[in-house]
Design goal:
The structure is a homodimer of 123-residue chains. With 123 residues, chain A is mainly alpha-helical. The first copy, chain A, has a two-stranded antiparallel ribbon. Chain A folds into two domains: 75 residues, Orthogonal Bundle (Arc Repressor Mutant, subunit A); 35 residues. The termini of chain A are far apart. In chain A, a hairpin with a 5-residue loop joins β1 and β2. Helices cover 63% and strands 10% of the residues of chain A. Chains A and B meet through α1, α2 and α6 of A and α1, α2, α6 and α7 of B. Chain A binds a DNA duplex (30 and 30 nucleotides) through α4.
DNA sequence: GTAATCAGTTACCTTTTGGTAAGCAGTTAC
DNA sequence: GTAACTGCTTACCAAAAGGTAACTGATTAC
């Protein structure tokens, strides 16, 4: 009957999922980690990502202090997005999510590798 | 240039978020870990969770082999939901999400490191 | 003036997710 | 037969997330 306790421990979990959940946020962060800095650059680095969604996601990420936005004056006006130090703390989380996903697939589709399954169909 | 590689590494991350993302899944798993077994029992253990959503989420969790469903014959027909061993592998992930959420809150609302971050990156 | 680039915004839709309420099937108890 | 419990399903909505396409504003290049 100690549900209260468990549920309060879950608030931070929900916070985290709100910040990095959704379809694009982690992809965008990684794109920035890879060195992409400008709006169009980021957009082009992630297939199927539209300007509207990117715009919204960048705002969310900035609000959560995972990226910074700087407008540079010059030529055709450029904006520079950079990942913050704080964003680096996500590496461990993302790695953990990745590991679990890999292990989960093994659990779901068998320990044998998929190539085996695909090739040796009819025994 | 190495986007392909990064993106393929992200597939497991997306898998994981699909499995444990959303508003209720982690709560339900934890409710089962706490010992709740029956439909109504789980429903009552999580405030604001409706039968419809619980029903759907339980199916998803069963598909992902995180819980098992057993129908017991007897009295007013009872179903027993139990967390699998595999579900236990989520503990580490959830803990990591929780830690990050807590730390993120400190980062956002604690004044200590704010200036640090903003200045360090735009240098 | 026309085109093209960057960095977005806006309007409009569709899909997904979540919520509300009612109802159904099966069984027990009265 | 009526109520009450369990374990759901169904129909109907509302909100949020995501997608498409057009368009703005600034500036350079021709």
């Amino acid at each position: 009957m100690e549900h209260k306790e468990c549920m309060s421990a879950l608030l931070p979990v929900r916070d985290t999922l709100d910040v990095i959940g959704g379809k694009w946020k982690i992809l965008i962060i990684i794109s920035l980690w890879e060195g992409n800095k400008h709006f169009r650059e980021i957009e082009r680095s992630i297939p199927k990502l539209s300007t509207k969604v990117l715009s919204k996601e960048l705002k969310d990420l900035e609000e959560n202090q995972l990226i910074t936005r700087t407008v540079l004056n010059g030529f055709p006006v450029r904006t520079e997005y950079k990942p913050t130090k704080h964003s680096r703390t996500l590496e461990k989380v993302i790695l953990e999510l990745q590991h679990w996903g890999i292990n989960h697939r093994k659990e779901m589709f068998g320990d044998r590798n998929e190539a085996d399954n695909a090739i040796a169909v009819s025994g």
